[in-house]
Amino acid sequence: LDLEDADSLLDLVTQHLDEFPEDQLDDEAARYAAKMTKASITEGTRDGHLRIIKHYITFHLRRNKKWDATRVDDKTPHDIAAFIT
Length: 85
Prior knowledge:
Blueprint: H1 3-16, H2 28-40, H3 43-63, H4 76-84
Helix pairs in contact: 1-3
């Protein structure tokens, strides 16, 4: 994975961070919690999260070029554990 690919991955992650708007939540308490969470996350925290996400994706793509970052299935916990350990 070269630097240009890594930058495009970071851009992709940034584009999709707001795909879960709180106005679509069914529960008033969930909407309130989402707003409080969003207000509490500083830009530094958000940047830290983006760095972790970028490293997570890069880690898996280096191990397996066909790894799909959008896949969520029974292998996902294993992927997370492999990254952490």
